[in-house]
Amino acid sequence: ILGPMTPLERKRLDYHPEIPSLFKNGVFQIAPAKAPHPDLRSLFPRTMDQKAFRLVPGKPHFAPPRRVGVLFSGGPAAGGHNVIAALCDGVGELIGFLNGADGLVRDEWKKLSPDVVAPYRNQGGFDLIGTGRTKIETPEQLKAAQETCRKHQLDGLVIIGGDDSNTNAAVLAEYFLEEHCSTRVIGVPKTIDGDLRSAEIELSFGFDSATKTYAEIIGNIARDAGSARKYYHFIKLMGRSASHITLECALATQPNVALIGEEGLTLPQIVHKLVDVIERRAAAGKNYGVILIPEGLAEFIPNLEGPRDPHGNLQVSQIETDQLLIGEVKKKLKLDKWFPQGHFLGYEGRCCLPTNFDAKYAYVLGCLAAMAIRDRLTGLICSVQHLRKSVEQWQCTLVPIVGLMHFEKRLGKPKPVIAKTLVDLKGEPFTSFVKKRGEWEVQDAYRHPGPIQFFGGAELTDTVPLTL
Amino acid sequence: ILGPMTPLERKRLDYHPEIPSLFKNGVFQIAPAKAPHPDLRSLFPRTMDQKAFRLVPGKPHFAPPRRVGVLFSGGPAAGGHNVIAALCDGVGELIGFLNGADGLVRDEWKKLSPDVVAPYRNQGGFDLIGTGRTKIETPEQLKAAQETCRKHQLDGLVIIGGDDSNTNAAVLAEYFLEEHCSTRVIGVPKTIDGDLRSAEIELSFGFDSATKTYAEIIGNIARDAGSARKYYHFIKLMGRSASHITLECALATQPNVALIGEEGLTLPQIVHKLVDVIERRAAAGKNYGVILIPEGLAEFIPNLEGPRDPHGNLQVSQIETDQLLIGEVKKKLKLDKWFPQGHFLGYEGRCCLPTNFDAKYAYVLGCLAAMAIRDRLTGLICSVQHLRKSVEQWQCTLVPIVGLMHFEKRLGKPKPVIAKTLVDLKGEPFTSFVKKRGEWEVQDAYRHPGPIQFFGGAELTDTVPLTL
Fold first, then answer.
1. What is the least distance, in Å, from the CA of B48 to any CA of chain A?
2. Could you tell me the pTM of the whole model?
3. Which of A148, B77, B112, B276 has the highest Cβ tally under 10 A?
4. Best residue in B72, B97, B223, B447 to probe A by mutation, most A CBs within 10 Å?
């Protein structure tokens, strides 16, 4: 049971996300798709030669899907409820599986009628149906999932998740075809990490809201640094592997130093850099500062040891990178007084109220998923391009998930998964950061974006991520 | 040098804080003042019998003060720049002493012309002139402060600070009278902690903005708790000694448990309470939760040991209360899986953009300080009452600081200081919290206030603290 809604939550219920008019008068047209890795053929024989489908003007020729299931997978991201809202608006009956893929396997679900969905429109979190991290991989799990879909006579299943969850969507799509189960499986790209990017996927939903919330907090801490003039704030930012969140927040707040894991510095190089900046600032009379550290930094540091998860990934959230760096810097620093403060920003931004950008983007992704199921498509992920432009110009495409996969070693065995996209060291966001960051080191250039605003003009309420 | 202003910061420059019309057509009338502790007479012979002064309708008969100095003391709080803006608007020339009382002692200052002040109106932080924690106590410091004031021919000195800083303002006021220095000293109540409360001082500025920022973050974390359904978030909230911040945030966000230091529970009692709630939630299928912990909790726990500062205060920020409680709970808990996450919220909220409430309140405090100096008053602190009502109904009074003092043992010696006000266990805010908190323990009633809004209607932009 939810607590009473706050005034801002109530006001956000009145927000109507804009959608491209093609959702009223458009059809899917076959579009070229990237050729998948040839070794995937044995695993995905039925979905291997999928095409992409682009929404273009035309007269729709299928009826809306009658029954659709939806589930969240992985960490929450702002906008998730709007994917559900769009599905609720676009299909006959919608059911939500509880607590991620577990709900599908165990047949635990909730009917998502318009009444039930109404108070969640434009709201943060995944709490309407919860989420989970279970993957459907064993024969037993696959069979149970299929039985649930058959029992509910689902025309489609929408999986809202990150790289691993969309990989799982492709596995389910293939399996359902093999088993002659008529449920179509469509993936929706979700992750605050921003690492589900490619030529096909510009961005996942949730990144904008999370980074704007972190930028608010970093801006406040930076203003505190320049006011109290006493503390060095080491701010670690959530985001497994890739440093997209840190890069976005750095561009938004202009800290003294922002480490980008993808640069591949060794630990001594990083410590040398920090000590150099801190000592030059001290020489300028400034014994305070703001340093951003991506959570995934540890993955890029050669020879760093730490605990690994069952998939063989370094458990970077278990390595206190901020404390590690504080300790190493302290050893080298020739200052009498130095007051470091560690921070970790993560849970603060995954479930905030979605920005207008994420509210619209997630709603459009949901519309696209509903339309894909209407057209009996499967094994595809929703892609919206030209996100920097006005909503009417957003290009909506369904892209074969197998085309996004490569092989990664997991527990010593090659496993087909969607490639995580790292910060491109030749891309515009990073190179423009590199041009400016020298100026931020000693001469304070902190920016304070302030809290996300939902009213007061489009220049406050409808901005897009800087790294887009 | 500041970075370029963000769109929201620029928009906030256009905000004009409302002030009571008595500032245009009012005069001070003598009002009854609380009798100071009799033992203070030997320390404050010249300011001991001060009256209070209340702003009432009438025709002003003094000219605005020609030259005034201002300084920040202690931790930053949102609204500080608006006190300066009001002084800038209300006096002939304003100078700001740099980095707190150090600037006064060392004669380090900055001219605060309207041009210099302009970009700081309604902005967060204390970075225009910085702040510091130095107290002016030794004969050398007192003499140096006096010399600085004489050199600059200051009519008045405004000290913006918390309990200790306003105590210091009273000491300076007395000393300047003794030394026939004509500089008047006026205190302005600032602290996010909310412990500078009394019959005379309803609230200090900064509390509203800080608690609304923390409530935004706590609400986001609570939504994450209910979405991921996996983590117990132990959120420690800044605030030396008193639990006002925690109480305010608890009323705003309705966490599962909020500890209030003033209840005086022992460590085993606290741990028992937490274990009980966690186990009852587990029985209801809920292995997640949100627990608020006041930073000052450690001060109220009998027999807890920890480092003390030079004033003899327990350094509560050095005791990781959240980690301590997580460890103790873990020992008693009979659960296979339990994932606690510690958080500390403090620096995130001291320097945020001030809410409309703090922007107005701080501006009015500055107006009141300017008028006090105009009328050649000294040793007084600015007090605004009826803050829950409309600005026009705010009652503006100058209250003798000595009347707020009591004796506290510091390093074994009794020292006159302004009494810190703890949460009143018989007051309405606490009793209404006690009535509701049982319901929040198992049945989730989280509220998500969302980010501070500056546009979109008074119900979003102009609320007052719930504990007022």
1. 33
2. 0.96
3. B77
4. B223
